[in-house]
Design a protein that fits this description.
The structure holds 2 protein chains of 2 kinds.
Chain A lengths: L1 E12 L4 E13 L3 E5 L6 H9 L6 E6 L2 E2 L7 E4 L11 H11 L4 H14 L15 H13 L5 E5 L7 H18 L2 E6 L2 H7 L2 E6 L4 E7 L11 H25 L24
Parallel strand pairs in A: 3-8, 3-9, 6-7, 7-8
Antiparallel strand pairs in A: 1-2, 1-4, 4-5, 9-10
Helix pairs in contact in A: 2-3, 2-4, 3-4, 6-7
Chain B lengths: L1 H23 L11 H13 L2 H33 L1 H16 L6 H8 L3 H25 L3 H9 L4 H38 L5 H10 L3 H33 L6
Helix pairs in contact in B: 2-10, 3-4, 3-6, 3-8, 3-9, 4-6, 5-6, 6-8, 7-8, 8-9, 8-10, 9-10
The chains are: A alpha/beta, B mainly alpha.
Chain lengths: ~280, ~250
Amino acid sequence: MSLIVKDVSKEFISKYKRTSTLENFNLEIQKGDFVCILGPSGCGKSTLLNILAGLENATKGVVILNGNEITQPGPDRTVMFQEAALFPWLKVIDNVEFGMKMAGLPKEIRREKALHYLKMVHLSKFQNSYVYELSGGMKQRVALARALTLDSEILLMDEPFAALDSQTKMILQQELQRIWVKTKKTIVFITHNAEEAVYLANRVVVMAANPGRIKQEFIIELARPRQMESSDISYYTAKIMKALKEEVEKVAKAEYDGDWNIEENTVLYSSDTDMGGNL
Amino acid sequence: MKKILFYILLILIWEGIYKLGVDILGIWKPYIFPSPIDVFKTLVGLIKDNTIGIAIVASVKRIIVGYFISVIIGVTLGLTIAKFKYLEENLGPLILGLQTLPSICWLPFAILWYGLSESSIIFVIAIGSTFAVAMSVKYAIKNVNPLYIRAARTMGAKGSKIYTHVILPAALPDIVSGLKQGWSFAWRALMAGEMLSSTKGLGQVLMVGRDLADISQVVAVMIVIIILGLLVDKLVFSRLEKNMRHKWGLDRA
């Protein structure tokens, strides 16, 4: 399997201006890769994911999956969104079965597979619950199980943990790592959190904004399971942050007043600092 | 318990005003202001000689037929408009306009078509709620969270399957709210229609009360109409709507 993004550009044309969200974006992803796309807000990373999913079409360039051009969404590229997007009128188990039902799989096979993946995300107890009974983290687990049941070539994740509290997020990151090691699924994961990217990915692609393009790519060669607090993670994170910071600053400068500067704000001077004068 | 006490108090005040205005001061004639006791007596009489029973059966029959027709046409119309942008832009405002037309304005039209018959009242009921149902079905479909559709498409759902498995169930709570609104339109149209052109039914019994200058009968029938309306609204629609909104997670922000 291979996913090739070739010279993809995306422009949004409104009445007053044309915005170039992506420009000549090239990326090649191999089977079993875990790629994190990292970038400041507004750099076009979600647009890229939508194009990979087939939910949006590129203005220029092509995306090729196993030799076929991607033009529309399909079950070979499942997506996990920031919101779980579970269907509230279905029970948890029926939500997990949804994709397989669309594919026309018989009931028994669907049920068996759904239970298998629900077990993998530790929610088999809740198979007969309704969505409103679940917490945010549980919903994302169900969404993950639902995405896994389709045996898609590739799993696209659009900041799936961004809306969760930090404890829940940490647990789910561990789970995702475990599941990836177990299933060796190809994953493209969008995030704006450098630490998360280093913790999860084999490759971290840092994007630059205006227009969106690849700034730098990092290969993360760390053994798994990784520990979030390990110094190796911090080492890579610091390296990536350096590349990312320039971009964050660029985007922020465009938004804030002209005299704003990221460097000035790195040390906070306080008026009651006495420099040890009372020793 | 507190509620019952409140209504007992309300009836006592009513009786008090009656005693003061009619018996003591003589400002009003007894046929202008009814007493709660007379109303209750009349109500019992109407129930005993089965006038109310026959009237309710006749009215309920009409509204069921009329409402059924309006739901079928309204839902179909709403779905069609939601599906085609051209229709939405052009037919939408017309339907909105027709919805603002009080349904009783259709009665002369209906009488010319069907004569003074059962069909003309059913026509007024159906037309009174069809447009309200159609508009709310359209809004319900348009209000479906686009994320659901995107998620379904990435899972391989296509075309009519998206409609039957995602859009319709997602829109269901809003559709039920629309059906509830349609019911109240139909109920009003029924009463108006029966009062003007009918030989049986609650509206007609109400008019007989007027013809006989029997204000107790008028008020008694009004109370029956209120109770019936409340029963259907609370026991059927509100309950259904509430359960559904709860399950769909719409009742919390």
